[in-house]
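agent> Task received from the user: take the single chain below, predict its 3D structure, and emit structure tokens. No templates, no multimer pairing.
agent> Plan: (1) validate residues, (2) run structure prediction, (3) serialize to tokens, (4) report one or two observations.
agent> Step 1 OK, no nonstandard residues flagged.
tool_call: predict_structure(input=
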Amino acid sequence: MKDDLNRKTTRWIFAATSVFAVMFLFLAPFQKGLFVGYEVTFERPLYVALVCSLVCLTFICVYLYRDWQMTSHGDILVALIWIIPISYFIATLEAITRQWAFIEALVRLGWGVFFVLGYYVTRHSAGYKILLFALIGSGYVVVMFGLLNWFGNAHYQDAVLADRLSSVFQYPNAYAAYLIAIAICALIMVQSSRKKRYVAFHAFMLVPVFLSLLLTLSRGALLVLFVVLILYLSLLPWKRQLISVVELGIVGIAAFSIYGFAVKTRGQLFENYSKGISLLGWLLVLGIAAIASLIVLGVRLRFGRLDNNKADKLWSPKCLALPFVLVSLGLALYVLILSNFPFSKVLPTGIAARLEGVNLQSTSVFLRNTLYEDAIRAGADYPVFGAGGGAWSVLSESFKSYPYSSSKVHNFYIETYLESGLFGLIVLMVILCYVFVLLIGQIKKKIRETNDDIRWLIFPVFSIVILGHSLVDFDMSFFYMSSLVFLTLGATAAISNRPIAAIWRKGKVTKVFASGLFLVAIFMIYKCIVALRADEYYRSSMNVLAAAGKYDAFQSAIEQAENLMPGHSQYLLSMAQLNQLMYRETKNESFSKTAEYALNRLKAIDPYNIEAVEINYDLDMDRMNFDRAHEVARRAVALFPWSIGFYENAIELNLRLGSDASLLADKRREYSNEARLLVDEIERRIGMIDKLPETERLMSRGVFDVNDNLQAQFLMLDVMEALQKAERERLSTESKRR
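)
tool_result: status=success, residues=738
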């Protein structure tokens, strides 16, 4: 783009794509970070964002059609990036849950758009600056918005979750990962800015960023921050390392000094909101930030010339000395944590409690390890192309080792393996490695040179932080955050780009590629618009039902939604549930048939849907079709072995059939034997729960345990077995007498 920006066509494409990137960066986070949450409520903002992204792709395709040629490593990546969405679209063919697989495939298509957008916009100096300042600026806006919620000036849903700050993401750990990326970016801006006001401004913003990070109380994020800082410092000349540590120390002390006051202020505001208390909190935060920024500015003015030193050798002993010291300190802290050091004596209560709760058998560590093992075990059944996007949200009920609750794997790479198989995981890793190998090749040239501007490092650092934290959490499930990752990866590819011998010049191959991509974009825009229309019908059906309870209007709207999106689980679930309830009230067979139609469709496209199985069982029981209900109950226990309600239903039905005098004695005994096997299975699983760590054991027993109704069923089973035994003995005695 850089060479062709003077052309009229290229200028308007550059302007349009740049405007889109800036608007996305500033507006999208306020839609709950565009979370992919496998619920209807999250779909509409996602589809709107995807439509805008795909429209942007059509502009990019025009540029590719006119000017694209494969003459550099970056051009190869522009071609390879589309294999990621292809891997997910392949997975939709045999997906466990069709609707969410389709949405996840669309999300991957959006990733491709942002990668190419970052690559081509960053190639021009104006685009580089636009993305750089928009990325930092939008981060600062999100940070200040989070604190507005903390101090009671804004009321975004779940921006403060319990006592943890989560801002627009509604999830503290994901927000913490984002804050780490913004913190490192702000530090780089402090070190690279030449004007005093810019140094002071970015240093000023570092204080609320670090304060927000402390308020998230995220342990994993602090570990990632430490690792990223070590890696970042190891790239710098040793004198610049010292200055960076001093600046970080100033900002860290400032943030830490007001943490306790911020927590206390939040508690007071929660009990009784007062503008005076809120204002006092803001004055302290801003005042401490201003003082810290002036001290950092003074350090830059006094010692800033030291980093204009002669270039060091790459990873020389001098450059590795400080990182080695920090690693040693980190290991010492880890030993203290494992040795149950009383941090409450030296740290604020909230932070101390989080650190003291860290051990290899803690709830968080134990749950994640179990989660990863279960997800890998589930993925083994779909090794090549995966089970499709959103697979874990339904497979978890069948594969989890104990009754925990998590619709996300909490590991981006394992989730990619489960959803798109080895094919998708290998493609992802090849592209990431390709980008970062190019980056490593440029490090010495771009960092080690004297007086080199290192602001470009913001792009790779941002993606590295989020991708690193995604090893232990589901940050990439926020389309906003994952889009920024691929936007910055594309920018990194542009910065690290190197020419190669031309593979394709401008010609038929490149034009066919661009044309095909353009047609895909148009088709997917159409699909998203259809999905938005279906969502309108669905919402109207819910509104009609809530406002007037009119069945006909509801059924008409939900059928229109289902006709537009025939593979949508939630539409079919709503149809099945309402019609099952209508049949229960009226015994009208038309309701029963409509519910059965929806359930059969669900079984075909979403066989592991636990709500569909529940509705199916209730419908068969309402129709007094006990044989079919018995088969459904059997299937439910096999598919969802940690759902105690299905055991309860199955045992109750077996007891009912086992006491049916119209059945043969052998058949009744068969039902009672099955009930006994179910009781034994419940006791076996409770025994498994009792071997868990204490917190997990208590949580699991709250979910999977014998309630009063089950206890009564156990007694009834004992009585039934005793009666059956007595009957057998009586018959045996009579047969002997004969």
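agent> Step 4: summary for the user.
The longest strand covers residues 499-504.
agent> Done.
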